[in-house]
Design a protein that fits this description.
Blueprint lengths: L3 H7 L4 H21 L4 E8 L7 H17 L1 H5 L3 E6 L7 H13 L6 E9 L1 H14 L9 H5 L12 E4 L18 E4 L9 H12 L9
Parallel strand pairs: 1-3, 2-3, 4-5
Helix pairs in contact: 1-2, 2-3, 3-5
Length: about 220
């Protein structure tokens, strides 16, 4: 979900307003996904690198996540959305960490759509942490295969994405799901995230539907 800052700058608004509008885009995109029958949706909310942004902006993102858990995600839960967060949690403020865990518990039996929110997440950090867990567990190198390794990722229950949508015209994946995207189809759109909505989601799915997935075969 990229382009919040540029969206705000183009309108002469503080970057916080871009993030706030981005939260609204998340809600309408999740609701559109439900309408389209999508069962699993992962979103990149805050990266490990985002801590390097100005402190005021980081603080506003943390506050916005807190507000989103209070105001937006409970309404999505009424529509059957199960929310899970993945990434590091040791750097997340304690009160927000508790809210994240509470929401996960409250929605764990819902199954209309699984919403996976990457928060303080980095793909390289995830792979390093998975390797460390295997070493700490004393796993014999000969016993390490793809399934064993994948079981040590932040969210081993999350399905590998069929499709990655990157907004804002950037043509890179920016350290997102480096393991899980091995055979995902990639769609890049010019639209800034705060302007993203149901039509853009349907268009991206249309592009995906016209592709032939080979998984290394012919």
């Amino acid at each position: 979900m990229d382009g919040n800052g540029r969206w705000a700058s183009a309108r002469g608004l503080p970057v916080e307003e871009g993030h706030r509008e981005g939260a609204r885009a998340l809600r309408r995109t999740v609701e559109a996904a439900i309408d389209l029958g999508i069962r699993s949706l992962a979103v990149y909310a805050f990266s490990t690198e985002n801590w390097a942004r100005p402190p005021d902006e980081v603080e506003s993102i943390i506050e916005l996540m807190d507000q989103t858990i209070d105001r937006e995600l409970p309404d999505l839960a009424k529509q059957g959305v199960r929310t899970r967060f993945f990434g590091r949690r040791d750097r997340v403020p304690g009160d927000l960490r508790e809210r994240m865990a509470d929401l996960e518990r409250q929605t764990e039996d819902l199954d209309t759509l699984g919403l996976w929110i990457a928060f303080d997440y980095g793909g390289r950090a995830e792979l390093v942490e998975a390797a460390r867990r295997l070493v700490a567990a004393g796993v014999d190198p000969e016993d390490v295969d793809e399934n064993t390794f994948a079981g040590q990722l932040y969210a081993p229950a999350m399905p590998d994405p069929d499709l990655l949508i990157r907004t804002s015209g950037e043509l890179r994946i920016s350290n997102f799901l480096l393991w899980q995207l091995a055979y995902s189809e990639l769609v890049f759109v010019e639209t800034l995230w705060p302007d993203f909505g149901p039509r853009h989601l349907r268009d991206a799915l249309g592009v995906y539907a016209r592709r032939k997935r080979r998984f290394g075969g012919r």
